[in-house]
UniProtKB/TrEMBL annotation:
<keyword id="KW-0804">Transcription</keyword>
<feature type="domain" description="HTH myb-type">
    <location>
        <begin position="66"/>
        <end position="116"/>
    </location>
</feature>
<feature type="domain" description="Myb-like">
    <location>
        <begin position="9"/>
        <end position="61"/>
    </location>
</feature>
<protein>
    <submittedName>
        <fullName>Transcription factor myb26</fullName>
    </submittedName>
</protein>
<dbReference type="GO" id="GO:0010597">
    <property type="term" value="P:green leaf volatile biosynthetic process"/>
</dbReference>
<dbReference type="InterPro" id="IPR051953">
    <property type="entry name" value="Plant_SW-associated_TFs"/>
</dbReference>
<dbReference type="Pfam" id="PF00249">
    <property type="entry name" value="Myb_DNA-binding"/>
</dbReference>
<feature type="compositionally biased region" description="Low complexity">
    <location>
        <begin position="332"/>
        <end position="351"/>
    </location>
</feature>
<feature type="compositionally biased region" description="Polar residues">
    <location>
        <begin position="352"/>
        <end position="368"/>
    </location>
</feature>
<feature type="region of interest" description="Disordered">
    <location>
        <begin position="332"/>
        <end position="368"/>
    </location>
</feature>
<dbReference type="GO" id="GO:0005634">
    <property type="term" value="C:nucleus"/>
</dbReference>
<dbReference type="InterPro" id="IPR001005">
    <property type="entry name" value="SANT/Myb"/>
</dbReference>
<dbReference type="InterPro" id="IPR017930">
    <property type="entry name" value="Myb_dom"/>
</dbReference>
<feature type="domain" description="Myb-like">
    <location>
        <begin position="62"/>
        <end position="112"/>
    </location>
</feature>
<keyword id="KW-0238">DNA-binding</keyword>
<feature type="domain" description="HTH myb-type">
    <location>
        <begin position="9"/>
        <end position="65"/>
    </location>
</feature>
<keyword id="KW-0805">Transcription regulation</keyword>
Amino acid sequence: MGHHTCCNKQKVKRGLWSPEEDEKLIKYITTYGHGCWSSVPKLAGLQRCGKSCRLRWINYLRPDLKRGSFSHQEAALIIELHSILGNRWAQIAKHLPGRTDNEVKNFWNSSIKKKLLSHGTLSDFSMIFPNSLTTTNPNPSFENFYPLNSTPINLMPISTNSPLILQVDHQMNNNQLNGDLNLNPVVPSLINPLSFDSISNDPTWFNFNYPHPQHDLDNYNQNVLKQDNSDSMLTSNISFNYTNGENFMDSRNAAIKTHQDLLMQVPLLPKLSEKIKGNGGIVESIPPAASQQIESMVVNSLPCTFPNGYIHPHYGMNGVHEMEQIECMHMSSFPSSSSSSPSSSKSSPSSCNTQFVMNPNLHTSWDS
DNA sequence: AAGGAACCCAACCGCCACCGA
DNA sequence: GTCGGTGGCGGTTGGGTTCCT
């Protein structure tokens, strides 16, 4: 019942793994690969069933796992994806590099679901995650999201009406065709310079987000528009090397022009509603408005979170070290979630006008 | 300080889909 | 078409840890 044949043939150990067992498994898999999991325990000298070995490797021992608490971006993404995908944790986890379905599931059940249950639904995000913090709050948490209409101080100048982010990934890869929701945009971080007119005078904003005027279109076209067919999460390698000592206004004006130029050239991501396919075709019909919001949220929450727009060429979203250092976040356009019920796997998002941004002075770790 | 409650999360369970014989 | 083996997934559990009184 539920056990695979390999588990029944011999007495297998259950429960927590010892460091010695971990070591054996790591050593074996790094040397030989896992091959057929059912044969792994025997060959690796473990008294475990293959299934247990597989789970241990996937959820804990894999070298590419990102340990530690979830970032705000990840949390927002989980919420959003859950509103689309429901409890399809594996699908959700695919869009969170270094995270496992088990981890996402646990996080949802322990942190997010709890909040949902205590506040109702996500339809009013501000009620679930009220403005509990100021810019100096030392204990950033999930509650650090601000609804835009609450006009907190030092908000990120995000507006869905401004072309904050240009989306250039319009690949339709096999995953998408097989039912995956591909939310892996290749995204340059293009903050609309015009929006800086309305924000605080904090110069760190400029230093963090401003595209450098020397970042010209040639460079852009070479690095950003180049489509990479590899399976890396992020294929863009674009860097705005702003130098602090440069003249602000000159840079600003140049950046505005660059920004406007880029807007004219960069193709847009296909609508999310067009990309979600199931076994028999498109199974999730996302309303255009919700789709737009989801796209915006996803785009804003992924690679553009690197303050200077730099996307690590190797790690992409797995750039753990970079992620840990990000202190500004671009969160906006949270559509509501109607998926307060964990059993709902076919929930459909409804529209919500509340938008959220992160206080840039906060840390990124989920919990302090 | 102690004991119970609440929480977290690694691991297991049960089911399903796929594949090859 | 059927069956066995396997991988994969979501739901659930239970033990360890942290929090609260």
